[in-house]
Amino acid sequence: MRLLTATLTALVLTAHSVSAQSGSLIDRYFAAFDMDQVLELLKEEGIKAGEGLTEDDGVILSPAWTARLRRIYDEDKAAELFRDAMEDIANIEASEPAIAFFESDLGQRIVQIELDARRALNAEGGEELAAAKVRDVRDNDPALYLMYQKFIEVNDLIESNVMGALNSNLAFYQGMATNEQYEEGLTDSFMLSTVWEQEPEIREEMEEWTINFSVMAYGALSKSEIQAYIDISDTDAGKKLNTALFAGFDAMFEAQSYELGRATAEFMLGEDT
């Protein structure tokens, strides 16, 4: 009996140790990637997109709707969803070398230029500017263009983002279906078929967005720096970090989309109290 107790104690201590290590790594991730700034930017994007819904979509822009959007995209709630998803990743400790890369001077530069690139793409005329830069690189520096394509491939940016977008769209419909007025029409088969019909368009948009983003962001790096980024991304640690990153974003976006679907259904029916 004492042996069993000792074994259980050892298991509990080990579990606490692993949990503490995971928490420490996630804290390092949040600091290295400036997640406070990332989540603030994503909140702004979410609110802007939500406010862009027109009366044709069944939602009238109002202070109540904007307030609901702010609750949906609350940074603290988003951070909690993100952390919880990352903590569920098995052996997240294996990502430590990749986190260390982003804590380096080069890694910190990359974090900031990625944030700057996202803001630039969101600005008026940003997408057109990015597309022009892509054409210029493709025509005048094909080797650099291939590096951008390699970066996108190594990080599985297109496939992961397409699947994330499809899951978020499904979550939106599932959120709407919680309202009894829409439950009957929003069957599982209807929601799945509707979402999958969107796949080609989403894929095309993602292919365009990833190359536009890459050129806008990494144009500030030398080819050797881009190669260093590709190299760390292609390691086991880089892939593990990518897995954790997408798990965090997917969980966050799906939860937000679900709540947006619920809110949309309520506001379409005037249940906006």
Describe this structure in words.
The chain is mostly helical and 273 residues long. It has one domain. It has 14 helices and no strands. It is globular, with a radius of gyration of 21 Å. The N and C termini lie far apart (58 Å). The N terminus is likely disordered.
Features:
273 residues; mainly alpha; 14 helices; 0% strand; disordered N terminus
Order of helices and strands: HHHHHHHHHHHHHH
Q: Which structural class best describes the helix and strand composition?
A: mainly alpha
Could you describe the largest sheet, including whether it forms a barrel? Answer: none
Number of E-state strands: 0
Helix fraction, binned, reads: over 70%
Principal-axis shape: globular
Low-confidence residue ranges: 1-22
Q: In angstroms, what separates the terminal alpha carbons?
A: 58 Å
Please tally the helical runs, counting DSSP H or I stretches of 4 or more residues.
14
Q: What percentage of amino acids are in beta strands?
A: under 5%
Number of domains: 1
Overall pLDDT score: 89
Radius of gyration: 21 Å
